[in-house]
């Protein structure tokens, strides 16, 4: 519009000729003539046009073209119909022409359709920061795997860095959270650095409650991210452009990994991943198509890697959480082993974190005890966890009460109770089993229960569980011989019949 105003100014204000205006404005003489013709057809006067802005002047001189065909096409409906199986753009145009015989031609129809689609399908270019995002996903295709004659479909884990696009691909047996997290660990170690953000899909191993605003992560996956000091930004559901680089990585995994391996037969996961690693290294070393000479590896080392976080000193291990109640003997049970807790927390509900060989006990988020896993004996007791003024008399009173209750049932019950309390140096650790034995006695006859305790002592059993098994299986009665009784009947001959 600046040239148009210059043409009009030269013509009306200075009275210049068309030849001079064309040379002065750098235009063809025909273009100058057409501009003056359009201005004359607009009905504007030069004083009016001088005060108009460029947009208004353009609207006056170049009004929008009328649709000479008179068509009113619902292009959104055309887009929807085109998604049907076997439906083509030519078929839709033919159907439209039946009601609009004088309408636009097929090339014009295609051009208008592409124009309308481009207006609707607008994408935003994403400028990613170096080392910021790692895009992760599982490929849709699987790899056949035969292990010990059993067929499996190995899943393909794909990760790609945001700027360099460096790929990491590996096969796992499942998409469960264990394999999902283990693949992340190996991916981080392969890169040697940690991205600031991980962009996963909404699979159950990563997100247990998808949400556009506040997605809820899987607890195990969240613990892994916290350990490595990174965050997750799950892609929105049904928005593949949120993780376009992961989709591109999946495409490359199809072309550079799965296609070359399509004729191979694998019988173990290690061999499969070794072959995948060779192909992925070749893909990362392949130059980009922009003829810059750079590769994914070189761009990763120069751009992504310097901006990423270092690996932590300790490798992540899966964490399990349990809730336990501290028993009166200030111990909690983990996998049939007892671990001590400071005595002041007796009766409290505590959270137990199991991570590798370590057992950490928390109360309201504060760590109150820690142990290493043990399979020796039945108890692990820290001396400092016992009460400072632990009165031995209280223990003796409990012992005497248990022995008195056992004596009232039978002598063998007393012997069994005493043997349980002698299993450890601290008799109070056997009080729980003794209470269980006395509870068993409430459901059986005293004589029967006393005989079962005798039978348990003969077998060397010194536990509530062993006694319960004897009672439930009637093992104590299996060895007893039934008392024989002579049969007196008229049809039975006595010994005199054989003399």
What can you tell me about this protein's structure?
The chain is of the alpha+beta class. The protein contains 19 helices and 17 strands. It has helices spanning 2-12, 18-25, 29-42, 46-51, 54-61, 75-82, 89-99, 106-120, 177-191, 219-227, 244-258, 269-284, 296-304, 392-409, 411-421, 431-441, 446-459, 464-473, 475-478, and strands at 133-138, 143-147, 150-161, 167-172, 193-194, 197-199, 207-209, 216-217, 231-232, 309-310, 319-325, 331-334, 337-340, 349-355, 358-363, 366-372, 379-380. The strands form 5 sheets. Strands 1, 2, 3, 4, 6 and 9 form a 6-stranded mixed β-sheet that branches. A 4-stranded antiparallel β-sheet has the order 11-14-15-16, with no helix packed on it. Strands 12-13-17 form a 3-stranded mixed β-sheet, with no helix packed on it. The longest helix has 18 residues, at 392-409.
Descriptive tags:
499 residues; 4-stranded antiparallel sheet; 5 domains; Nucleotidyltransferase, domain 5; 6-stranded mixed sheet; alpha+beta
Show the helix and strand layout.
Blueprint: H1 2-12, H2 18-25, H3 29-42, H4 46-51, H5 54-61, H6 75-82, H7 89-99, H8 106-120, E1 133-138, E2 143-147, E3 150-161, E4 167-172, H9 177-191, E5 193-194, E6 197-199, E7 207-209, E8 216-217, H10 219-227, E9 231-232, H11 244-258, H12 269-284, H13 296-304, E10 309-310, E11 319-325, E12 331-334, E13 337-340, E14 349-355, E15 358-363, E16 366-372, E17 379-380, H14 392-409, H15 411-421, H16 431-441, H17 446-459, H18 464-473, H19 475-478
Parallel strand pairs: 1-6, 6-9, 13-17
Antiparallel strand pairs: 1-3, 2-3, 3-4, 5-10, 7-8, 11-14, 12-13, 14-15, 15-16
